[in-house]
Amino acid sequence: MSDTESYLYRYSWDKEDLLHYPWTERYVKQWEVLAYLHHVVKKYDLRQHMRFNTESTAMSFDEAANYWTITCKNGEVYTARYVVTAVGLLSNPNYPDIAGLSSFKGELYHSAAFPKDVDFKDKRIGVIGCGSTGVQIITAIAKQNSVKELLCFQRNPQWSVPSGDMLVTREYRESINRRYDEIWKKVFNSTFAFGVNESTMKTTDVSPERREQIYEEAWQRGNGFGFMYSTFEDITWDEEANQTTTAFLSKKIRETVKDPEKARKLIPQEMYARRPLCDSGYYEQFNRPNVDVVDIKATPIVKITEDGIETSDGTLHEVDMLIFATGFDAVEGSYNRFEITGRNGETLKERWNRRVTSLYGFAVPNFPNFFMIIGPNSPATNNPPIIETQVDFIAKAISKAEKNKTGVIEATDEAEEWWTRVCDEACEGSLFKKTKNWFFGSNIPGKPYCTRFYFPGMKKYRNNLETCVSFGYKGFHPF
Ligand code: NA7
User: Fold this and answer.
1) Tens-place pLDDT, residues 292-306
2) Number of H helices and number of E strands within the chain?
């Protein structure tokens, strides 16, 4: 499930489609996202431009001729003046290196490649990970009453609020349709682009009673981004403010989970400062006798055996199925799967060993005419509108280069340094820096710790791009 509301998890530029294309629930599910993309491809006859089964393994820039050579796994080789990569922010699955994994005899899945039609009936299932994905998977599986046992192997619990998912009524859809122009205008002029009213109020601006009421209203409305961004603006940078949020959320968990020991394990010790989660009844599932949580911080996993997971207290948790909801080698992890070679034989991977960065999230010095969609230091916002913003900029820049017959668009070192500094400074003081977070690379051992996002958000990002264009593509070598 995408936890961005359905009406914003789509392209903004086709008004007719926005008004008529159907969606059934407040949040789109995977199959609806896929169906929507198929629909757009068909409507705009895009399939003629697509080549399937051409997995790319390497790309290199020919400095003398100013073009890229793209090598594919099937042996095909392509040349192109421009390369626009859209390899995803979260597309390289993280399989933790746990001893004995290959000896497991049961079914083994990762959330990033989950097959259709898995049969959970009468099975003992273990889920490792309880981020956005784990929380959804655990809730969905537990709700299938036929599961024999569900064990959640939890290292650090995270805070989650109700999603408020529901079927879309005709009145609701009509009210969105009536306001679509206004909605997009607001999104493109907001910080987070999730369509929520972004609060400018501090937790101390109101009485404790009013504060509780505001949290309660956000809880009832549902949506993680709404809870984090529409309540109080100081909860992601002021620890005391954050404590008022975690006190409210702890109370909710204790009220929901009847077994105090399970509740204790499910209540995070860390601040409410990770990518906000929401769920369709996650905590409620732990009231089922066949659903439990194993605290693998207290008793770490020692190894995986053929029958299940052994923890440090000597317990063997026997399972028939193991699901890894362990996230992704995010951001640069998506690019590190290819050998991407720019000027002077330098690879992107080597460059990013020092510091994972870019200019505006899409351009890298020494990699001319090479673009990324949501590369490192892109805005941390709802993705579809940021993708549109970047695609728009790149398409116009390419048109200009083609028109002027220069053919080389390349960021300068100084501009990249400047953007990196802007991104670093913008997250100074953010409590997101004090939690374990894939935003900073701390979810994968060995990754450099640094910000990978531009926190000031959509509106300021678009202003930066406009300024860049109005000053003749400042930050790029003249083209
Ligand atoms: P996340 O948010 O990175 O969550 C991964 C989860 O897996 C998290 O609970 C981790 O625990 C856990 N994890 C990772 N490695 C291990 C090991 N070795 N042992 C135990 N547990 C582990 O990934 P998601 O797929 O949920 O979400 C990623 C994004 O996709 C999300 O932000 C949305 O934008 C869409 P930890 O917290 O590190 O202790």
Assistant:
1) 999 999 999 999 999
2) 14, 18
